[in-house]
# Entry
Amino acid sequence: MKRRDFLKNTAASTTLLGLGSLPLESFSVTNISSVKKITILHTNDVHSHIDPFPATDPKNPNQGGVARRAAIIEQIRREEENVLLLDAGDIFQGTPYFNYYGGELEFKLMSMMKYDLATLGNHDFDNGVDGFYAQLHHANFDFVSANYDFKNTVLNGHIKPYKVFKKGGVKIGVFGLGVQLDGLVDKKLYKETIYNEPIEIAQDMSRILKNDLKCDLVICLSHLGFHYKENPERVSDLILARKTKNIDLIIGGHTHTFLEKPVIEKNLDGQEVLINQVGCYGINLGRIDFYLDEKKNITSGGRRIII
# Structure
């Protein structure tokens, strides 16, 4: 079954009650025992929303909140053997928790939920590179960004371009990309951080991860934005997918785009790339399940979980 059809048939579930395993229709009974399942959970643009929305909120009554997200993640980890939990940036800014604690609470709670990796969004610079660095020791997980060069800042050596995980014998490479900071963030906050063009960097990263390091899955944590209707040529996740190769999944942020299920784009080689983004404020948790057979052929399905 092609990835597009698989997604169509399996992405309907949006609540915790619908979190059963996706069907392995594309694999024969004889080889099903050799199939490896990798579950990617992800968030973006949580913006310091620790508490759920109040019951009186006109748009998202009783939705979101760290406690509910933690409970869902814990349940999925009990059900699944190989799970990665990722964030696509803008962890900071949006509630008084950030104004008071400066990011300490966000990092401590993410560490308690055992996030594996995150990238930086533009609002993660809101207390400057120094403010971000001051809170970094509270994060028991790493940050990746391949197109921000921090060599002349306090973050030099603390933010890596990529990280490689091994889950169930499957090698997973994850790299990060950030949005242009000039005009979006005060120069006094990002200081000497250098922004490099993301498409070219993504080509290098995906080549290194897929060809040199032999990763079976390559994931981009992107804070570029899903798509810009008013400027369709502006670098976005859709453009990134079309102009690169070797990327299997783009987990997006920045534009607060609520996708019901992952979007599929074709890359330079005509291969399918999944793109997913789950809105903002911790209202949803994204889930992508990858299945790899003994030849590392990939089948996938995705959904969003309302928290």
Observations:
- The mean pLDDT is 90.
- The first strand starts at residue 36 and ends at 43.
